[in-house]
C-alpha cells in the first residue's frame, strides 16, 4: 500500500460505522477482521498521517470519527509513535467527554505505561463516572502506571477537599484503587476485606516510615488514613451519595482506628442504623454480621 492520506482514513471510518450496524454476527466479525488489517496496513504505510488524523478525530466534534479513532488507536498502540503531542492532547480532551471516555480508556490500556500527563485526566474521569463497575477502566491503568500509593493519595485528597459530587466519586474510585491487581500480574492482591483486615491487624510499627513501594506491608499508614477519613466523612457529611459510597469500605472494628477516632465508630453505626435510607440501614447490618446485628 502506498501512503494512506486523510481521505483514506475517513473512508476507513465510514466502513467502521457500517460494520457496527451489520446484523449478521458472523459477517460482522469477518468485516471487523478485514478492517483491522487495513487499519494496521494504513498506519504502517504512513504512520505520521495516521497519527495526525487520529489525533484530530479523537479530539474533534464528530462523534462517529471519534469512535473510529478510539477503535484504531487501540489497535495501533504499539505501532504508532509514542503517545505524545497531538495524540496526547486529544486523549486528554476525549477523557473529559462522557460519551467517549470509556472507549478511550480501553485504548489507553493497551499502552505499556501511560504518559504522566494522563494521570489527572484519568482520575478525573474515574471520579466523574457514576457507574462503579466502569470506574475500574480508569483506575486500574493508573495503578499499573503510577503506583497504588500515588493513586490512593490523590483520591484521598479529593475526598478531603472536593465538593460532595467529587467526594462520592472519589470514594467509588478508591474501592478500585485498593482492589485492582498491581503489576506484575502475580503481585499480591488487596481486596476491600483484606484492606480492612490489614488495617485492623496489630501494628507495632504503626506510624513509622513506610518506604516507597506498593507492597501491602508498606501501606499500613495509608490504609489507616483511608479508614479514618471514611469514618470522619460518614459521620460529618450528611450527603446521601457520600454516605452510600463511604459505608461499604468502612471498617466496623475499633482496632482499625487510632484511639482518638474510635469514639466516632459508635456514632457512625448509630447514624447508619437510624438513617432514613433503607440501603444504608441494610448495609450496616450486613457489615456488622450476625453477632452484632440488631434483632428484628
Question: Summary?
Answer:
By secondary structure, this protein is an all-alpha fold.
Major sheet summary line = none
Strand content: under 5%
Q: Count the strands?
A: 0
- Supply Rg: 23 Å
Name the structural class: mainly alpha
What does the average pLDDT come to? 80
Helicity range of the residues?
55-70%
Distance between the termini: 74 Å
Q: Estimate the global geometry from the Cα principal axes.
A: elongated
Low-confidence stretches: 184-195, 202-212
Number of helices: 15
The H/E string reads: HHHHHHHHHHHHHHH
Descriptive account of the structure:
- This protein has 296 residues and is mainly α.
- Helix content is 64%, strand content 0%.
- The chain contains 15 helices and no strands.
- It has helices spanning 6-20, 25-45, 47-58, 63-75, 85-95, 101-108, 119-128, 136-146, 148-161, 164-179, 192-200, 220-236, 240-246, 262-274, 278-288.
- Helix 2 (25-45) packs across helix 3 (47-58).
- The longest helix is centred in the N-terminal third of the chain and has 21 residues, at 25-45.
- Residues 184-195 and 202-212 have low confidence and may be disordered.
Short key terms for the protein model shown above:
15 helices, 296 residues, mainly alpha
Task: Give the SSE layout.
Layout: H1 6-20, H2 25-45, H3 47-58, H4 63-75, H5 85-95, H6 101-108, H7 119-128, H8 136-146, H9 148-161, H10 164-179, H11 192-200, H12 220-236, H13 240-246, H14 262-274, H15 278-288
Helix pairs in contact: 1-2, 1-4, 2-3, 3-4, 3-5, 4-6, 7-8, 7-10, 8-9, 8-10, 9-10, 9-12, 10-13, 11-12, 12-14, 14-15
Amino acid at each position: 500500500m502506498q501512503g494512506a492520506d486523510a481521505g483514506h482514513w475517513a473512508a476507513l471510518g465510514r466502513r467502521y460505522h457500517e460494520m457496527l450496524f451489520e446484523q449478521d454476527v458472523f459477517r460482522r466479525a469477518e468485516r471487523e477482521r478485514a478492517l483491522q488489517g487495513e487499519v494496521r496496513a494504513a498506519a504502517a504505510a504512513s504512520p505520521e498521517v495516521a497519527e495526525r488524523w487520529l489525533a484530530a478525530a479523537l479530539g474533534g466534534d464528530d462523534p462517529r470519527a471519534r469512535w473510529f479513532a478510539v477503535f484504531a488507536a487501540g489497535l495501533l498502540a504499539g505501532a504508532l509513535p509514542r503517545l505524545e503531542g497531538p495524540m496526547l492532547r486529544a486523549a486528554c480532551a476525549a477523557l473529559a467527554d462522557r460519551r467517549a471516555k470509556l472507549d478511550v480508556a480501553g485504548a489507553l490500556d493497551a499502552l505499556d505505561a501511560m504518559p504522566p500527563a494522563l494521570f489527572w485526566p484519568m482520575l478525573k474521569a474515574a471520579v466523574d463516572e457514576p457507574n462503579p463497575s466502569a470506574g475500574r477502566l480508569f483506575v486500574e491503568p493508573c495503578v499499573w502506571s503510577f503506583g497504588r500509593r500515588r493513586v490512593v493519595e490523590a483520591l484521598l485528597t479529593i475526598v478531603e477537599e472536593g465538593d460532595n459530587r467529587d467526594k462520592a466519586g472519589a470514594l467509588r474510585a478508591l474501592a478500585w484503587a485498593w482492589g485492582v491487581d498491581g503489576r506484575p500480574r502475580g503481585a499480591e492482591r488487596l481486596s476491600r476485606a483484606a484492606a480492612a483486615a490489614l488495617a485492623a491487624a496489630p501494628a507495632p510499627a504503626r506510624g513509622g516510615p513506610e518506604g516507597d513501594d506498593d507492597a501491602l506491608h508498606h501501606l499500613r499508614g495509608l490504609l489507616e488514613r483511608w479508614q479514618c477519613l471514611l469514618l470522619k466523612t460518614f459521620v460529618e457529611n450528611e450527603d446521601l451519595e457520600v454516605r452510600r459510597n463511604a459505608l461499604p469500605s468502612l471498617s466496623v472494628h475499633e482496632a482499625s482506628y487510632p484511639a482518638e477516632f474510635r469514639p466516632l465508630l459508635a456514632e457512625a453505626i448509630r447514624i447508619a442504623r437510624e438513617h432514613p435510607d433503607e440501603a444504608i440501614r441494610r448495609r450496616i447490618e450486613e457489615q456488622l454480621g450476625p453477632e452484632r446485628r440488631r434483632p428484628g
